[in-house]
Amino acid sequence: MTSFVAGSGTRRAMLTLGLGTLVITLQDPIIKATMGTYPVAEAVTIRSLVALPIFLVLLHRLGGWRVALEGNTRQSIIRALLFMVAYTTYFLAFPAMPLATVVALYFTAPLFVVLLSRPYLGERQSLGRWIAVLVGFAGAVVVAQPGTDGIGWAALLPVSAAALYAFGQLMARRYGEGTSATVMSFHQNSVYLVGAMLFSFIAMPFATAPGTTGSMAFLLRSWVMPDVKDLVLLGLCGPIAVGGTILLTKAYREAPPGAVTPIEYMALLWATLWGFAIFAEIPSGATIVGAALIIASGIFAVTRGASVARVAQ
Questions:
Q1: Among candidates 281, 262, 241, which has minimal Cα distance to 43?
Q2: What CA–CA distance (Å, rounded) separates 30 from 312?
Q3: pTM of the prediction?
Q4: Is 184:308 a contact under the CB 8 Å cutoff?
């Protein structure tokens, strides 16, 4: 068994990742608090519009807008499309279940990395990692409680988001050399912005009736002019996403991923806190047990080889 002693660089990276995890989760309660009024595409559009000038400034500091065309632009845009679907699907789970449950199921992402790395990258996985995958998905089943009064099929929303996100991270491993994290994040933000507006236009004939609730209503609801308070809240998601992404990227560049990735599971703690303090949500026993299985198996998986970082939402 290999011992690990955290040096000053690793400790700094762990603190940076902890802060980044806190920052990135701040947008979750904002989206959940406003989901009853605005469609998810409108929230994504406002978030992306506010983030755009921030990314333009960052690109300027890197050498100008031409930097955005460096590297494998085609694959970066395809990856951004995957993340856009993952990002949207993740938020569509909010009307169906508590924040802590959404995040617990979303953290099956490291398990999907293990599952997909063999067919996509040709990476061999140990028996222990395959067992970790089975345990982690068993935890997801415990959380979902199919066939009972649990969340049931709605669990597929955050799990699907995790699978798409994991595949996007594998694409970054395969095609990401030569493309900076800032450029890839800029492509993601641009695709989010264009994709959300285009989807809203296509979905107009299928808009849900006023007052309708649930995930489908959150997806298809007509746009509403936000008041000043909601506009500020949704706009805050822009700098929150940019700041969180920078902190996460910085952390993973300063230390071995296996040493710091488990810190990301603090997101479940923050989600539980936001859910309780803002929405009076109390995790069920099944959520706690299932989350424990997912976290334990995920930590085992990412600390035994290839790892995965949280999506830039």
A1: 241
A2: 16
A3: 0.85
A4: no
Angle 67-166-83 from CA coordinates, rounded to 5°? 50
Looking at residue 210, its amino acid is P
Backbone angles phi, psi at 207, to 5 degrees: -60, 140
Report the alpha-carbon distance of residue 209 to residue 30 in Å, rounded: 23
Of 211, 212, 201, 275, the closest CA to residue 45 belongs to 201
Q: Which two tokens stand for residue 123?
A: 């990476």
Q: What share of the chain is helix, strand, coil (3-state, %, to 5)?
A: 75, 0, 25
- pLDDT tens digit at each of 313 positions of the chain: 334 444 566 778 788 888 988 998 999 999 999 999 999 999 999 999 999 999 999 888 888 778 887 777 888 889 889 989 999 999 999 999 999 899 989 988 878 877 887 787 777 777 787 888 888 888 888 888 776 666 778 889 999 999 998 888 788 777 766 677 788 888 889 999 999 999 999 999 988 877 788 899 999 999 999 999 999 999 999 999 888 877 877 776 666 655 666 777 888 889 999 999 999 999 888 889 988 998 888 888 767 654 444 444 5
